[in-house]
Design brief:
The protein is of the alpha+beta class and 260 residues long. It folds into 2 domains: 88 residues, Multidrug-efflux Transporter Regulator, Chain: A, Domain 2 (Orthogonal Bundle); 130 residues, Alpha-Beta Barrel (Multidrug-efflux Transporter 1 Regulator Bmrr, Chain A). It is built from 7 helices and 9 strands, in the order βααββαααβαββαβββ. A hairpin with a 6-residue loop joins strand 5 and strand 6.
Length: 260
C-alpha cells in the first residue's frame, strides 16, 4: 500500500466496475472537484478511492442526470447523512422551478412561431398632434434582453408612488436600441390630452406584447413611404384589453418634410 493510501483503497478502474460509470466520467468528476480521490500518487498520478466513494460517484451521476449544476451538486455532497434528503429536495425544488420556467419559454416560443407564420392585417397609422398628460412617472434603467420583466418591476414601483392614481400605463423609449441597457420613462396618464408641439403617427395593435414589433414595422414603413422622418422618443400606452387580447398604442413623433 502506498503512503497515504486509504485502507481497502480502490483504483479508478475498480470504482468504475462497481459504480458502472466510465473511467472518463470519474476523471471528469475529479477535475470539477466533486469526486476527489482519497489520494493521488504524485509520481504515477494513480488515483486511489475509498470504498465509500463508489456510492458518492453514483449519487453525483444521478444529480447530474437530474440537471443539477456543479455548485448544486457540491451543496448536496457537503450535507451529512441526516440532512441529505432535505438538501436534495431543496436543490431539486430550485431545479424544478428552472425547468418549469424553461418549459414556459418553450411554450411561448411555440406560440410565437405559430403567430409569426399567420398573416395579420395592421391598422392604418393615424396622424396625431397630442398625447395624454402623465399623472406620475419614473425614469428607470432597463435591460433590453429582459425588457418585459424590468418594465413590470418599474410599474410596480410606480404604483407605490404617493401621487399614483389609476389610469393607463405607458412607457417612453429611445427609438434606437443601441446598448444592453436604456433609460425608460414609465408613467400613468388619465387620458387628458396635452399638446406635444410635434406631429406624431400613432397605431394601436391588438395582441401579445411579443408581436408589438409588427406595429413598429408598420409605423416606420408608413413614415418612410411618406418621406417623413422619425424623431425623439417613442411612446407605448397599454390600453384596456379587448376580450382576451391586450391592446398597445404606439406613438412615434415625426418631422414632416416641407411642413408649413
Amino acid at each position: 500500500m502506498a503512503a497515504g493510501e486509504p485502507l481497502n483503497a480502490l483504483g479508478i478502474g475498480e470504482v468504475s466496475r462497481r459504480s458502472r460509470l466510465p473511467i472518463s466520467t470519474l476523471r471528469y468528476y475529479h477535475e470539477i472537484g466533486l469526486l476527489v480521490p482519497a489520494s493521488v500518487d504524485p509520481a504515477t498520478n494513480y488515483r486511489s478511492y475509498s470504498p465509500e466513494q463508489v456510492a458518492d460517484a453514483v449519487l453525483i451521476h444521478e444529480l447530474r442526470r437530474a440537471g443539477l449544476d456543479p455548485a448544486q451538486m457540491a451543496r448536496v455532497l457537503a450535507a451529512d447523512r441526516e440532512r441529505l434528503v432535505d438538501e436534495v429536495r431543496a436543490v431539486t425544488t430550485t431545479v424544478r422551478q428552472r425547468l418549469e420556467s424553461e418549459a414556459a419559454r418553450l411554450d411561448r416560443l411555440d406560440a410565437f412561431v405559430v403567430r409569426h407564420l399567420r398573416e395579420t392585417e395592421e391598422e392604418s397609422p393615424l396622424l396625431v398632434g397630442d398625447v395624454p398628460q402623465p399623472i406620475v412617472w419614473l425614469d428607470r434603467t432597463v435591460r433590453t434582453d429582459a425588457l418585459t420583466v424590468d418594465l413590470k418591476r418599474a410599474f410596480a414601483e410606480l404604483r407605490r408612488q404617493d401621487a399614483y392614481r389609476a389610469g393607463v400605463f405607458g412607457a417612453r423609449f429611445p427609438l434606437d436600441f443601441d446598448s444592453d441597457t436604456m433609460t425608460v420613462r414609465v408613467f400613468v396618464d388619465d387620458g387628458s390630452p396635452v399638446g406635444r408641439g410635434a406631429i406624431a403617427v400613432s397605431l394601436r395593435r391588438r395582441g401579445p406584447y411579443d408581436d408589438l414589433w409588427r406595429a413598429y414595422a408598420a409605423l416606420l414603413d408608413d413614415v418612410e413611404d411618406r418621406g417623413w422622418r422619425p424623431i425623439g422618443h417613442v411612446v407605448e400606452r397599454y390600453l384596456p384589453a379587448t376580450g382576451a387580447e391586450p391592446v398597445t398604442e404606439v406613438t412615434l413623433p415625426i418631422q414632416v418634410a416641407n411642413k408649413p
